[in-house]
């Protein structure tokens, strides 16, 4: 039976320190037995190996130790103390090195592997003491000086750079001269993936193509490494260089570097436009500390994406459109984040997939805050399976041509949690929609947003909190709507919206802006919390409140005039006048013996013939209430009465329950209310 061994993971739960060469590396860990209990006050067996290039590469060093654990299972030893000769011969400056730890908790030699982890930082002492291969150690003031070193380096030479431009500006660090093929461009064959100088992590010497100064770092890729030090200057190129470098190290065969996440520290950064790349995360310090401003360039958006399928993680950033130092004052006319999908030649499809956007603030921009544009001509460019959390967008104009959030074309499985979409303020609300959702149907194709969910979000100071035009399966749950002309507008005039679920929300002064005094262009009369045309909706569990006496006489809770199908129930109102509805009950005329309706309450007129059939898409078990708008006769067909025909006079009521017993659809009469029983 294989022995099950537990140990705290190297680098995360073990500790490594570096002794003076040739003494080695001090390692400390905790040993556990197969029951998961610490192996205390015992001698255990440990085999240590150092591998070249990869986690499964050639073993270039190995030794065994027999450390004793203390009463908590902690053990320690010095790597290199048992096999000093081989340890001293390790060429730390050539290829990556990986540390493999194997233990036998019984103290024998039946080792089981615990971990294999890359040694990402190696002290200069190991370079300088490990034979003449390592070369020399020097210090220069900045990146320019590093690039202009006259003495030709040897593999393993290390240089400490004091700063990017000036000492102490945050862009300095340690560099090692590497001659691995990935860093070379010898003019024959394919250049190495990392053979270009990127002004940050890879620095070339003029006239030298056989190697590269390679920055040594742990953790995120700091944009300060590329000269973006956050002092209100234009950092478009440095930030783009960091993103491009992160994309490259995602695909190189050996893990020469660590994280592919780009970090933007606290500071103020002006940009023209940056292009986000596949699998690259961009992380700021926080929404309050990492602030990005627009330049006065002609780029319509600050952020866009490359063609093809893109996976992203963007977080902890603030985009602010009003900043005098960026070349203009007042709100910027630009948009901010443009997630417009486009196909790539390499894979054929495109779009933002499996991505997260979290803790992002956008304010003072007149353009679209976040634009999710999926395919509008074919099915190859969807935006889907992505999460937006804690996003706050305050729009910078009252014009209706742009929106804080726009979702258009082929989009699916999008979730918005704890987000705010604010059109303006109480003096000048936005004349458009806080969120605009639009579909397309070219040549009969269905390219519309579907399965989009808003949870615990806020919408305020817009003519429309949310407006949609051809969408399906949109869920708005637990959200708040405040000071809107119409809270939610569902427009199916061109193509019907279906599966619109409006549940458990709160509407405050969301029909005609309540008691706000506004100028022209705002919906003050005929305002409703929810309005729909030619669509199907479920509206349940909502609470509606208005300032006392603020709701206009033509305003109310729901307006479904037209042919919308609505299931509306269990909503509550602070004031009686808040509950006004139009179109919940429909006027229907039966034709050819058939009552056709998807509504559960209808005023029915007959065609002079008895009605023997009902056609409806309500669920089995659902109830249809019919109020006679004139004389009616119901006969047996798929309608089941307890006896013969049922005649109704004007104003009398009959109810049917839909059943599907043994796959046969029937509508059973469950009650009849007569004028003179």
Q: What spatial form do the alpha-carbon principal axes imply?
A: elongated
Number of helices: 4
Q: What is the helix fraction of residues, given as a range?
A: under 10%
Cα gyration radius (Å) = 34 Å
Largest sheet: 30 strands, parallel
- Average pLDDT, to the nearest integer? 88
What do these coordinates show?
The protein folds into five domains: 6-122, Sandwich (Immunoglobulin-like), CATH 2.60.40; 135-216, no CATH class; 232-395, no CATH class; 398-583; 586-673, Jelly Rolls (Sandwich). It is built from four helices and 55 strands. The radius of gyration is 34 Å and the shape is elongated. 42% of the residues are buried. Mean pLDDT is 88; it is low at 1-22 and 127-135.
How are the SSEs placed, and which strands pair?
Layout: E1 6-7, E2 15-18, E3 25-32, E4 45-52, E5 59-65, E6 74-79, H1 84-88, E7 97-104, E8 112-118, H2 124-129, E9 137-140, H3 143-147, E10 158-161, E11 173-178, E12 202-203, E13 212-216, E14 221-222, E15 231-234, H4 236-249, E16 261-264, E17 267-271, E18 274-276, E19 281-284, E20 290-294, E21 301-305, E22 309-310, E23 313-320, E24 335-340, E25 351-352, E26 356-365, E27 370-373, E28 383-395, E29 405-408, E30 411-417, E31 420-422, E32 430-438, E33 449-455, E34 458-469, E35 472-477, E36 480-491, E37 498-503, E38 506-508, E39 528-533, E40 536-540, E41 543-545, E42 556-559, E43 565-569, E44 572-573, E45 581-582, E46 586-589, E47 594-596, E48 601-605, E49 613-615, E50 623-628, E51 632-634, E52 639-640, E53 646-648, E54 653-659, E55 666-673
Parallel strand pairs: 9-10, 14-16, 15-17, 16-19, 17-20, 18-21, 19-23, 20-23, 21-24, 22-25, 23-26, 24-27, 26-28, 27-29, 28-30, 28-31, 29-32, 30-33, 31-34, 32-34, 33-35, 34-36, 35-37, 36-38, 36-39, 37-40, 38-41, 39-42, 40-43, 41-44, 42-45, 46-48, 47-49, 48-50, 52-55
Antiparallel strand pairs: 1-3, 2-3, 3-6, 4-5, 4-7, 7-8, 10-11, 11-13, 12-13, 50-54, 51-53, 54-55
InterPro entries: PbH1 (IPR006626), Pectin_lyas_fold (IPR012334), Pectin_lyase_fold/virulence (IPR011050)
Signal peptide: 1-19
Protein name: Pectate lyase superfamily protein domain-containing protein
């Amino acid at each position: 039976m294989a022995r099950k061994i537990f140990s705290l993971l190297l680098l995360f739960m073990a500790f490594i320190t570096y002794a003076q060469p040739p003494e080695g590396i001090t390692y400390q860990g905790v040993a556990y037995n197969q029951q998961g209990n610490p192996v205390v006050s015992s001698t255990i067996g440990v085999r240590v190996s150092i591998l070249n290039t990869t986690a499964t590469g050639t073993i270039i060093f190995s030794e065994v130790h027999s450390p004793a654990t203390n009463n908590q299972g902690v053990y320690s030893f010095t790597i290199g103390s048992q096999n000093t000769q081989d340890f001293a011969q390790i060429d730390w400056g050539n290829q990556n090195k990986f540390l493999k730890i194997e233990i036998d908790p019984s103290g024998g030699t039946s080792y089981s592997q615990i971990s294999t982890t890359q040694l990402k930082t190696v002290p200069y002492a190991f370079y300088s003491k490990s034979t003449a291969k390592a070369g020399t150690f020097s210090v220069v003031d900045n990146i320019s000086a590093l690039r202009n070193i006259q003495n030709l380096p040897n593999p393993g030479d290390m240089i400490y750079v004091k700063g990017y431009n000036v000492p102490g500006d945050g862009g300095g660090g340690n560099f090692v001269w590497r001659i691995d093929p990935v860093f070379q461009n010898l003019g024959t064959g394919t250049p190495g993936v990392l053979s270009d100088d990127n002004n940050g992590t890879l620095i070339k010497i003029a006239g030298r193509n056989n190697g590269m100064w390679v920055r040594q770092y742990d953790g995120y890729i700091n944009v300060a490494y590329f000269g973006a030090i956050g002092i209100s200057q234009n950092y478009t190129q440095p930030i783009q260089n960091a993103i491009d470098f992160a994309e490259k190290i995602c695909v190189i065969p050996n893990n020469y570097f660590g994280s592919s996440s780009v970090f933007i520290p606290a500071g103020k950064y002006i940009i023209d436009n940056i292009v986000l790349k596949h699998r690259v995360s961009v992380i700021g310090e926080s929404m309050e500390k990492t602030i990005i401003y627009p330049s006065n360039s002609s780029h319509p958006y600050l952020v866009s994406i490359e063609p093809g399928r893109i996976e992203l993680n963007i977080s902890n950033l603030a985009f602010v459109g009003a900043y005098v130092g960026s070349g203009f004052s007042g709100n910027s006319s630009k948009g901010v984040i443009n997630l417009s999908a486009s196909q790539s030649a390499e894979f054929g499809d495109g779009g933002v997939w499996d991505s997260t956007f979290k803790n992002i603030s956008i304010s003072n921009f007149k353009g679209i805050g976040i634009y999710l544009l999926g395919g509008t001509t074919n099915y190859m460019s969807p935006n889907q399976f992505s999460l937006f959390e804690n996003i706050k967008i305050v729009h910078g104009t009252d014009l209706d041509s742009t929106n804080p959030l726009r979702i258009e074309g082929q989009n699916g499985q999008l979730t918005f949690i704890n987000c705010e979409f604010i059109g303006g303020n109480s003096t000048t609300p936005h004349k458009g929609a806080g969120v605009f959702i639009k579909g397309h149907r070219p040549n009969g194709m269905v390219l519309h947003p579907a399965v989009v969910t808003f949870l615990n979000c806020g919408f305020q100071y817009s003519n429309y909190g949310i407006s949609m035009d051809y969408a399906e399966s949109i869920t708005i749950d637990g959200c708040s709507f405040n000071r809107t002309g119409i809270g939610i507008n569902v427009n199916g005039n061109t193509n019907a919206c279906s599966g619109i679920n409006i549940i458990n929300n709160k509407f405050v002064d969301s029909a005609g802006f309540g008691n706000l005094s506004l100028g022209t262009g705002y919906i003050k009369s005929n305002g409703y919390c929810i309005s729909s045309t030619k669509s199907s909706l479920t509206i349940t569990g909502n609470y509606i409140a208005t300032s006392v006496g603020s709701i206009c006489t033509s305003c109310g809770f729901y307006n479904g005039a037209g042919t919308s199908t609505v299931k509306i129930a269990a909503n509550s109102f602070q004031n009686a006048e808040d509950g006004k509805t139009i179109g919940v009950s429909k006027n229907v005329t039966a034709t050819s013996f058939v009552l056709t309706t998807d509504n559960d309450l209808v005023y029915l007129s007959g065609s002079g013939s008895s009605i023997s059939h009902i056609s409806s898409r309500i669920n089995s078990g659902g109830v249809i209430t019919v109020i006679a708008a004139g004389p009616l006769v119901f006969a047996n067909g798929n309608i089941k009465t307890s006896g013969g025909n049922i005649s109704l006079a004007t104003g009398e009521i009959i109810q049917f329950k839909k059943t599907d017993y043994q796959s046969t659809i029937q509508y059973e009469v469950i009650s009849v209310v007569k004028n003179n029983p």
